[in-house]
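Example 9 (inverse folding). The structure is encoded as follows.
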């Protein structure tokens, strides 16, 4: 997906960086504005957060709006609640998988099966897109702490480079 999108921004490297941030945070465009869910975001706040000139925001929105393919994608984005940081407060388990190659199919399926076979329910699973993230990871939030006996089994899953439990 990102390769297709980035082609439209080849001539505009700052817009490409901003478009990547829109994707990363699930920020959508609508009527020449940027939204996080239903909340309209101020251009000044976006420019400070992403360290870009406010004009780049308007130019990026124009590029997106003028292109039907881009508009279809960026008008449908939604933010996602990521529970990783609150999981310890809720006494939930967190498994972070660092893959050898994030394109390897089946890592999520195999790890979640191991967790389920241990009688633990998965509350959330988030996989970083390998085209958007420099170091993509799989984060699984489980209903309770992950028992130490599962770690060697998870490490044996094809494509798993490292496992971080918190």
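The amino acid assigned to each position is listed next.
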């Amino acid at each position: 997906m990102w390769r297709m999108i980035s082609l439209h921004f080849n001539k505009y490297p700052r817009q490409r960086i901003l478009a990547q941030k829109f994707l990363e945070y699930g920020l959508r465009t609508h009527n020449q504005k940027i939204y996080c869910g239903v909340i309209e975001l101020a251009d000044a706040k976006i420019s400070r957060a992403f360290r870009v000139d406010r004009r780049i925001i308007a130019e990026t929105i124009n590029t997106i709006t003028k292109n039907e393919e881009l508009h279809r994608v960026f008008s449908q984005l939604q933010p996602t609640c990521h529970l990783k940081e609150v999981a310890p407060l809720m006494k939930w388990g967190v498994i972070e998988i660092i893959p050898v190659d994030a394109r390897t199919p089946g890592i999520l399926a195999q790890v979640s099966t191991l967790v389920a076979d241990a009688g633990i329910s998965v509350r959330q699973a988030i996989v970083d897109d390998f085209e958007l993230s420099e170091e993509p990871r799989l984060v699984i939030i489980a209903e309770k702490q992950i028992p130490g006996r599962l770690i060697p089994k998870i490490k044996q899953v094809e494509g798993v480079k490292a496992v971080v439990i918190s």
